[in-house]
Write a structure and sequence with these properties.
There is one protein chain. With about 650 residues, the protein is of the alpha/beta class. It has 6 domains: about 5-85, Arc Repressor Mutant, subunit A (Orthogonal Bundle), CATH 1.10.10.10; about 90-155, Winged helix-like DNA-binding domain superfamily/Winged helix DNA-binding domain (Arc Repressor Mutant, subunit A, Orthogonal Bundle), CATH 1.10.10; about 160-295, PRD domain (PTS-regulatory domain, PRD); about 300-400, PRD domain (PTS-regulatory domain, PRD, Orthogonal Bundle), CATH 1.10.1790.10; about 405-490, 3-Layer(aba) Sandwich (Rossmann fold), CATH 3.40.50; about 495-640, 3-Layer(aba) Sandwich (Mannitol-specific EII, Chain A). The protein has helices at about 5-15, 25-30, 35-45, 70-75, 80-85, 90-100, 110-115, 120-135, 155-170, 200-215, 220-240, 260-275, 280-295, 305-315, 325-340, 350-355, 360-375, 380-405, 420-430, 475-490, 495-500, 520-530, 540-550, 605-615, 620-630, 630-640, and strands at about 55-60, 60-65, 140-145, 150, 175-180, 180-185, 405-410, 435-440, 455, 470, 505-515, 555-560, 570-585, 585-595. The chain has a 4-stranded parallel beta sheet, covered by helices on one side. α2 (about 25-30) crosses α3 (about 35-45) and α7 (about 110-115) crosses α8. The two termini are about 60 Å apart.
């Protein structure tokens, strides 16, 4: 008996029929080790704590069942499904959410408590947590005193929510298989892997869609293929349960784009699965096919909406951009807008990591997303913004790389011979220096110095505002030292990160072991002090709360709230550690770093600040050490010492 749940079910039955036994006797009966039996007993004791019967284990006596043996026998009959039930708050919340998604009816807390073998009070606590999470997504959890709870959402919205869960749950179940010259996407189903919809149905739909793609010459990228399979599985499951879409969706009449392909796919599903989908479900498929044709992979540069490109340039004017960023974002946003116009959303499995690791890029993405929403009447959630952030972060990385290189011009009396030798030595010994030109003195008056950071010359030259390093053609030790000093002063990344970060910290904006009990209390404490000390204007609290409503700034252990720069007079970093963790979005945080930026910092200064801040917050041991400090002055000194 390899299945632990079956073995434990049998152990309960056996204990209910005898007075006592031993681990070695049970091990012999079930063909496992005594150690395995002790693990089973420990699991059973935990499961049945507080129930009408208990599994007991006493030294020198053995293992026996105490309490109502009839109840134990009844319990054992339904133990197999129980073995897979959740046993902590987070798992129960997820379970309850799945149950609510699966039905349009009310679910009673009493029924949930019975099904999960916990108290009704525990269920109510879990439902309250779920309701808060849903509220942040603008999803209403309806309560009826006599009947319980249900999700108050449309059928289309319910399906999108189911898709988000399934896409995450089955994210690692896909593989690309090659058969001869033909590559196809396959779904690998684990036994019993039926989560909201049947895993075997997903396998069949994968084959159907693969065949459709080949017959109709319809190109999907991997994500679009997987997404459509899951959406089809949800649609078919809901139709079989008598829950089809109530009406045909807008923009999907018989003459509209992709209608013929949608009808063809509907026919293939009927022929292969014996399921007839109503016209409104064909329209639902049509929308997904329209969205697939709008993907960045399918779009060409000439199809990009030029008004989107213009919006991007305007929004990124302060931070800067290059052609690669504008083109990449324009193609992505043109695709996104078209997809969202037909109400097809996507999920991003890396949103949390992007928000944490690329905080500046994500913030810029949120501002861009807000402008897109205002101009095009679509809503971009965190998942959508995170994809934009990747484009922006790639641009920031390109500019950081440029800033970590020094563009130099080599000047010699002739520009040949000795100058070439000098250039070769510099290339070999100073990888941070990019040589933009090798010029003679007579050529200087014809050259453009806009992108030149310094001149390395064997003769005295003076170019306004361009530093000159005078060296020998043979690059002596003193020459190397002079160039080293210039490189360190110009780039000096580590020290500059610390210096920029340290300039933001003030003792009056540092609190250790605050007794604030909630996110609201923490923000009020910090914002009041920012205004009182003339770092911020009135309205900074409201601005910060508004920003949190867009997307939580809470991460594991810490939060990084901030306000609109218009409300900041002088840049500062307020730091508050908490005596007890507080709920911040989906996280429990013990340290709050309020980044008050007035908008006057250059991109290079911001990079230094965020780079150093990331090093601090990604160091779990350092964060724990800061959180343990109970005196505000000591906390200030500790942070200053780090920076």
């Amino acid at each position: 008996m390899k299945d632990p749940s079956e073995r434990r079910q049998a152990i309960i039955k056996k204990l209910a029929s005898i007075k006592q036994t031993t681990a070695s006797e049970l091990a012999q009966v079930f063909g496992v080790s005594s150690k395995t039996i002790y693990k089973d007993i420990a699991a059973l004791q935990k499961k049945f704590e507080g129930q009408a019967f208990q599994i007991m284990s006493r030294p020198h006596y053995g293992i026996y069942l105490s309490g109502d043996k009839n109840e134990a026998l009844k319990f054992s009959k339904r133990f197999a499904p129980f073995a897979e039930l959740p046993n902590n708050d987070q798992e129960r919340i997820h379970y309850i959410y799945n149950r609510l998604l699966h039905t349009n009816d009310f679910i009673s807390p009493i029924r949930l408590a019975q099904d999960l073998y916990v108290s009704e009070r525990t269920i109510e606590r879990n439902i309250s947590s779920l309701a808060r999470d849903l509220q942040r997504q603008n999803i209403e959890l309806e309560k009826n005193l006599g009947r319980g709870y249900r999700l108050k959402v449309s059928e289309a919205k319910r399906r999108n929510l189911m898709f988000q869960i399934l896409n995450q749950y089955w994210g690692q179940s896909w593989k690309v298989s090659e058969n001869g010259q033909q590559a196809s996407i396959q779904f690998e189903k684990e036994p019993g892997d039926d989560h909201l919809v049947s895993g075997s149905l997903v396998q069949k739909l994968t084959d159907i869609l693969d065949q459709f793609s080949e017959q109709q010459s319809f190109k999907f990228n991997d994500y679009e293929f997987q997404s459509l399979v899951i959406h089809l599985a949800i649609a078919i499951s809901r139709v079989k349960e008598g829950r089809p879409l109530a009406k045909k969706l807008a923009g999907t009449d018989e003459r509209a784009e992709q209608r013929q392909n949608a009808e063809k796919l509907t026919e293939m599903i009927k022929n292969r699965l014996g399921i007839s989908l109503p016209p409104q479900e064909t329209s639902y498929i049509q929308l997904h096919l329209i969205a697939a044709t709008a993907s960045p992979v399918q779009l060409e540069q000439k199809e990009v909406d030029q008004s989107v490109s213009e919006l991007i340039r305007n929004e990124l004017l302060d931070v800067g951009y290059d052609d690669k960023l504008v083109q990449g974002l324009a193609v992505h946003l043109t695709s996104t807008i078209k997809r969202l116009k037909v109400q097809i959303s996507i999920s991003n499995p890396f949103t949390k990591q992007i928000k944490k690791n690329y905080q500046q890029a994500f913030e810029l993405a949120l501002h861009l997303a807000s402008s897109v929403e205002g101009q095009y009447g679509v809503v971009l959630n965190d998942d959508e913004a995170a994809y934009l952030a990747l484009h922006i972060e790639a641009y920031l990385e390109r500019t950081r790389f440029d800033r970590h290189m020094i563009n130099a011009a080599i000047v010699c009396s002739t520009g040949q011979g000795s100058a070439q030798l000098l250039a070769a030595k510099i290339r070999n010994e100073f990888p941070q220096i990019s040589i933009s030109g090798i010029w003679s003195a007579s050529e200087l008056k014809t050259k453009d110095f806009i992108r030149i950071d310094c001149i390395i010359s064997t003769i005295n030259v003076e170019i306004l505002e361009i530093p000159t390093i005078l060296v020998s053609p043979f690059l002596t030790a003193d020459d190397r030292h002079a160039i080293d000093n210039f490189v360190e002063q110009t780039l000096g990344s580590g020290k500059k990160d610390q210096q920029e970060f340290g300039r933001l910290i003030f003792p009056e904006l540092t609190w250790a072991h605050s007794t604030a009990k909630s996110q609201a209390q923490v923000l009020q404490l910090i914002c009041q002090q920012l205004v009182a000390d003339d770092f911020a204007k009135d309205g900074v609290l409201e601005s910060t709360v508004k920003r949190e409503q867009i997307s939580s700034t809470g991460f594991e252990m810490y939060a990084l709230p901030h306000a609109d720069p218009h409300f900041i007079k002088h840049s500062a970093l307020a730091i508050c550690t908490l005596k007890q963790p507080v709920k911040w979005g989906e996280n429990e945080v013990s340290a709050v770093f309020f980044l008050a930026m007035d908008g006057t910092k250059s991109q290079q200064q911001l990079d230094h600040i965020f780079d150093y801040f990331y090093r601090v917050t990604s160091d779990q041991k350092l964060l724990q050490r800061l959180i343990k400090i109970t005196d505000s002055q000591q906390l200030y000194q500790a942070i200053i010492g780090e920076s």
